[in-house]
Amino acid sequence: MGLFAEVYTGIADKANAGIAKAGLSDVDFETLIRLARSPRQSLRMSDLAAQTSLSTSGITRVVDRLEREGLVVREACATDRRASYAVITEAGNARLQQVLPQHLADIELWFTGLLTPEQLTIFLDMLRTIRDVVRPCATAGVINPRVDAGQG
C-alpha cells in the first residue's frame, strides 16, 4: 500500500500543477472531467458524489463554486423533484479543453508512457477489478457500453 500511495501521490503532484495553472483544484477538475465524459454531459448530484467519493454536502459545495464560475449549471430532474443534475457548460468544457492537453502530456510522461502497451492493458484491467470491488459507486450513473452491448 505504501508503494501504491507513493506512486499515486507522485503522479497527482505532477498532474495537479498543470490543473492549478488553469485555476482549478484537483476536485474541480475531477468533477468537470466526470461530467464531460458522462452521457448528456450531466450526472445526478448523488451519482457525482458517489463517483468522486465526496459526501453529498461536499459535492454540493464543489458544484456551487463551479456554478458561480459559470462552469456548471444545475438542472432539476423531470421525474424526481428531490433530485437534480449537475451539467457542464460550454465555459466548463472550454476550461477543460484548456487543461487537457497538458494533463494528458503529464499522464503520458509520468504514467502511461513508462509502460509498454501490454503492461498498461494488464495494469488498467487489474485496477478496474480492484476498483469495482472497493469503490463500486465509482461509475454510478454511467452507462457501461460492454454491459449494454451484452458483453458483461
From TrEMBL:
<dbReference type="InterPro" id="IPR039422">
    <property type="entry name" value="MarR/SlyA-like"/>
</dbReference>
<dbReference type="InterPro" id="IPR000835">
    <property type="entry name" value="HTH_MarR-typ"/>
</dbReference>
<feature type="domain" description="HTH marR-type">
    <location>
        <begin position="1"/>
        <end position="132"/>
    </location>
</feature>
<dbReference type="GO" id="GO:0006950">
    <property type="term" value="P:response to stress"/>
</dbReference>
<protein>
    <recommendedName>
        <fullName>HTH marR-type domain-containing protein</fullName>
    </recommendedName>
</protein>
<dbReference type="InterPro" id="IPR036390">
    <property type="entry name" value="WH_DNA-bd_sf"/>
</dbReference>
<dbReference type="GO" id="GO:0003700">
    <property type="term" value="F:DNA-binding transcription factor activity"/>
</dbReference>
<dbReference type="InterPro" id="IPR036388">
    <property type="entry name" value="WH-like_DNA-bd_sf"/>
</dbReference>
<dbReference type="Pfam" id="PF12802">
    <property type="entry name" value="MarR_2"/>
</dbReference>
